[in-house]
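We now fix the convention by which a protein and its fold are recorded. Here is one such record, which you should read through line by line:

>
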Amino acid sequence: MAAASNTRCIQEVEQQQEDRLSKLPDDILLSSQSLLARRDQRQAVRALYLRFYLGDESVGIVRAVDDAMARGCSIAKATFVILGEKMDIQCTDEDLAGHAARFLSCLDACPRAFAGLTALHVESVKLGQSDINNLLGTWGRLKSLSLLNCDSGRDTALVVQHPRIAVLKLVTCGTIQLRWLPELVKLTCECWLPSRDPLLFGHVPRLRTLALATNCTSDYKILRLSELLDKNATLWIQPEAPKQLAPRLSNLRILNLQKIPEECGIKWTFFLLDAAPLLEELDIEVSNHQCNPLEDEMLRERLVCKKTFIEWEPSDFKRYNLAVLTIYGFRPEKMFMGYITRIMEVAISS
């Protein structure tokens, strides 16, 4: 499957952009204590975006937001992006615990600022279940939550439940249990460990978009989508009969499959189409990506996966809603032409 995007690189590019006060009256972005200190209850802020490292010096900025809200300043959309002091891959368990202590201290000192957030990104913290329960209970307005390198300890699932979160992104996190998220629409999970199940699904009735991406190594377990959408997840996709998948994909409208190795073929993707009767759009990207050669035989055996052609004979079925097929990496060869011919036989316009 697709390798996870380099989240840290994106963040470093964004960090280079200076926070600024917009000249537009309906799109105000404040990033300094002095500006916040001048707000009063008669002035409303349309959008507040603060990006800062999780250090002691940052508490003053957050406190300025807290004080402004205490004076009655209303903020329609408030976003905090809280960065770790180290790269996530460099953090030890002690670093995660230290970051968490500073994070919780900042939250205790500025409860109004966090209670008013509509979006939050947090990096490299280890939170106990009681901590996350208290935090999510406090963040009543939160609609978007992003966690990078966060967990609650080894072999422990971090339980998330919230009445308003609509967008959730998890990158390099431990196991996350989505117990009760009635408004969740989009879920992204990237870069999980092969030894940990990344997700445990609970009550997510409105989930429409699920994006999974990680770096595949040979020690990842096989992924059965029916099991993933029913309870938990691993990795490699294994084609399944529609009987197992149909209950989970019955409302799927758009399917995007990226970086399919050319050696594996694409005929096997019909098992997904067969299980999704309402599918309207199918996007496929075929890649001839070659991994960098590894001289060490043990590393090569562990990290480089063998790509073999996947045998799958689709059953005889029809789809009345499929209107769009996009193939990236298309070439006028037998594999692609045969696939398109079969799609045209399956898709019947109503």
User: Anything to note?
Assistant: Residues 320 and 350 are 6 Å apart (CA to CA). Residues 93-109 form the longest helix (17 residues).
